[in-house]
Amino acid sequence: MEKVVIKKSPYNVKKARIIDIKQLTEKEKLFRVILEDNSWLDYEPGQFIMVSLMGIGEIPISICSSPLNRDYFEICVRAVGKVTESMHRLNVGEIIGIRGPYGKGFPIRMIEAHDLLIIAGGLGVAPLRSLILYAIDNRRDFGEIHILFGCKTPEELLFSDEIEEWGRRLDLHFACTVDRADPDWKGNIGLITSLIPGVDIDPIRTYAAVVGPPIMYKFVIKELLAKGLPVDQILLSFERHMKCGMGKCGRCQIQNLYCCKDGPVFTFKEIMDMAEAL
Ligand SMILES: Cc1cc2nc3c(=O)[nH]c(=O)nc-3n(C[C@H](O)[C@H](O)[C@H](O)COP(=O)(O)OP(=O)(O)OC[C@H]3O[C@@H](n4cnc5c(N)ncnc54)[C@H](O)[C@@H]3O)c2cc1C
Ligand code: FES
After folding, report:
1. Residue among 25, 31, 52, 59 whose CB has most ligand 1 atoms within 8 A, to mutate
2. Which residue's CA is the nearest one to ligand 1's atom 6?
3. 30-58-251 Cα angle (round to 5)
4. Which numbered atom of ligand 1 lies nearest the CA of 75?
């Protein structure tokens, strides 16, 4: 009799259990998750997963924990609509669906042994937290590490406990800024771009990793080019509406690139010709 091979569907959804939930700000919650089959998620910083809630929908979300942690993974979700608001109503112990990880993350092998300049705007700190935690866990594999973090107001500061700790570390350079301060704010005030000229980097040795709201990219790239960073050492992560998450439906297409498969992390060199379409 002929052997029948049943291929696993690439759309195969794994059950995952929420084991912890932390309210980070008014709009964002951090979910700590484990896979129900006791396997672990093998991912790279900057990759994303498709998260599904039965009967509600499916959305792309960046993984924000260190890939070296095999006990659980974490996702930070901002409540903006149907699926994300439903996620915010979930409790510890409840089950969600997971596909992935998908996409190209930050090219760790390429950036190791270099200096790192991490520029996070608002929720952009979520995928970058995975890279930061990885670099801290492997501190000796990297040169200087600079982290610049900006958000609109102090109340919107994500991962504030960890940020305080990064600020205290002697092996990191850390600066944080808000667009609008309150009387208790002791840090910088101004756009994140205002921090870049003051960062002391060797552009040839440095990779910049940038994630933030779309408006931020144009101005940050301008500052990085002025610092002398080569175009293939500027790494940018993009968000697009997605459906399949794996290069099949065309929903996330930007000219000839699929954001889900060719990105979400691109070098500026890869996308500079289509800057207008971004
Ligand atoms: C690669 C990738 C990584 C992401 N990582 C995170 C993350 O770590 N945390 C997080 O909170 N969100 C992340 N997002 C955005 C998240 O996927 C959307 O917020 C989510 O799909 C909204 O779904 P909803 O049903 O709650 O909202 P909807 O009701 O579908 O929409 C609400 C609003 O969000 C906008 N929106 C919907 N989908 C997207 C999208 N894919 N990109 C940009 N805007 C969108 C809509 O235009 C609308 O204005 C990521 C998106 C991508 C593509
Ligand atoms: S989401 Fe389907 S091709 Fe990218």
Report:
1. 59
2. 61
3. 120
4. 8
pLDDT band at residue 70 using 50, 70 and 90 as cut-offs: confident
Residue from 59, 99, 246 to probe ligand 2 pocket by mutation (most atoms less than 8 Å from CB)? 246
Average pLDDT of the chain to the nearest whole number: 91
Would you list the DSSP string of 4-71? P--PPPTTPPEEEEEEEEEE-SSSEEEEEEEETTS------TT-EEEEEETTTEEEEEE--S-TT--S
Distance of CA 228 to the CA centre of its chain: 25
What average pLDDT score do residues 57-66 get? Answer: 96
Per-residue pLDDT at 96: 97
- Structure tokens, 46: 């900057």
How far apart CA 275 and CA 278 sit, in angstroms, is 5
Ligand closest to 246 (CA) is 2
For residues 183 and 153, is the Cβ–Cβ distance under 8 A? no
Residue 272 is predicted with a pLDDT of 85
- 231-270 tens-digit pLDDT: 999 999 998 899 999 999 999 998 889 999 999 999 999 9
Residues forming beta bridges with residue 146, ordered by sequence position: 117, 173
4 pLDDT tier (thresholds 50, 70, 90) = low
Mean pLDDT over 92-102 rounds to: 95
Query: Domains, the chain, ranges and CATH?
Result: 14-101 (2.40.30.10), 108-237 (3.40.50.80)
Tell me how far the alpha carbon of residue 59 lies from the centroid of ligand 1, in angstroms: 7
